[in-house]
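Appendix B, Record 12. Input sequence as logged:
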Amino acid sequence: MNASTFKQDLMASFVVFLVALPLCMGIAIASGVPVAAGLITGIVGGLVVGFIAGCPLQVSGPAAGLTVIILDLVREFGLESLGVAVLMAGLLQGAAGLLRLGQWFRAVSPAVVRGMLAGIGVLIIGSQLHVMVDDKPKGNGIENLVTIPQAVAKSFAWPSVQSQESRRFRRDMLQEVGELHRRQQDLEERVAEIYPHVHNPELEYTETQRTADAADLEALAVVQQAIQDDLESATAKLQRLDEHFATPQRAARAAAAADAAVEQNHAALAAFSGGDPAAILTEQDASVAAIQKLLVSLKNHHFAAWVGVLSILSIIGWQFVPKSLKLIPGPLVAVCVGTLIAAAFALPVLYVEIPDRLWEGVHLPSWAVVHETGIAALLKSAILIAVVASAETLLCATAVDQLHNGVRTNYDRELFAQGVGNTVCGVLGVLPMTGVIVRSSANIQAGGQTRASAILHGVWLLLFVAVFGFLLRQIPTACLAAILVYTGFKLVNINDIRKLANYGKSEVLIYFATVITIVAEDLLTGVLVGIALAAFKLLYTFSHLEAHLRTDADNERICRLQLHGAATFIRLPMLAAELEKVPPGCELHVDFQDLRYIDHACLELMMTWAKQHENTGGRLVIDWESLHARFSPVGQSPRSAEAAPR
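Logged structural output:
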């Protein structure tokens, strides 16, 4: 690598880093996991996958396409199951790469792929519009979509503007309680890792294990006591400064929520003394919920909605700035705009929750989780992650190859590299990764020449989080959700429908069937429905034949047989029936103009029928040169065509 190339890679790596930073955080929030899980995945994508990728200019990291899968996984089995599922998915991808199956992951109908991305986009929009107004997503995709009008209504409502001092007080309290909420969630997860047998009675919990866990339990009780002390301190502030709320009723609700959180947290602390694992986990879960209610009493949906709307407008408006400024990515501009507005007006909205040390977000996978959840359930999620991540990565790699004239993609190596990256992510218990077209195209447009740009972007992510992590806590979550809403709209690309329509209505039908099933059911069911319809279309295409026999208007002794579709052995009876309708002594002309395929069985039927028809004084006329031109192997010599029977 010469100095000029390195300089280009260095500049490109900064651009990719600026694109990746908000997306890593936003995708983590959309997936229902801590922000640190998304940032660590982005770092692994650069520092691990970047060195061994089969597509050097492709940039890997957490992708919007996997948010739906991960959100469902975490909701159903808990955050502790994430690492195991991602680890298994990584091993599957690595094995597929070693077995040279890279090209097979690309063998999916474009209608299914586009439908899958659009379905994911619809689900992202439905869930993140609620996050954008500081609400929680609903239970499923349909509920999220049905309740969108409520979220939109909050965007148009004019917020009650209090004094700067009051807004600053509520903002500070939100950030303080938000950090307590993060710490309590982390504590609950670590307790669940110690006591997996609580949710799985089949696991034996021996006295030896109980003794071994006692030391860990004592250490966690100390953490719970620290949370209790900080929560009581925060509650004292709320009791003293109730004048900072818009109405006495809101102040009373906040004070009551604070008292309930303190009381519940005290019960969680007392549970540690009792030593009953089931009671500890129950009280921990209730404590997280109580602090969440306290957060709800402090935040303002209207302010969050306006932050989100302004963030989306910033991304859209940035598309019209001079080309020289477009090296700064739109999502970063949105983050800066949202953060500056929130800081300038001290807005009481939810902010990013991130630990002081990034590696506190690491949750090592445990074999006990497999026993608790069940290998079948985890394997199902792992296969889905592996298939979707592989398909998205390799499709992205194909798109990247079209954007530059450098080294082409080695699909098997790229698949293996993704497997290694996801195996590492699984060991760390963070989000899975794919090759991401947004970051990859930004890399190429910024002048990236080698894999060094992808590697360096991971370095900048690591350094920024390690040194300037405190800045991330100033970012409103509504701002990151707005970026994901915009990303969702980009995934639902209307141009894809127009392009598919050029290949027939059946492609559009497959597209919409995939989208609707994904939204109504789940991602796996939607993809399987799409694949099944594509397979049915293929079977129909190669088994459907239309045959129209007509008599020439000028000469009754001449008949014409027009074939449309595919003449295969499956349709042999129908073709034979049409030939039997030809009057004796008639000259039959066969039109192959609309025929896509004809197999040996149908040709042999025609030859056999022609011999019999000649006995009646008739004749079969076939343009063999035209037939060979349409169906013979490319490059066949003219002599071989002439040698064909006439």
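The beta strands are 60-61, 434-435, 545-551, 558-567, 587-598, 619-621.
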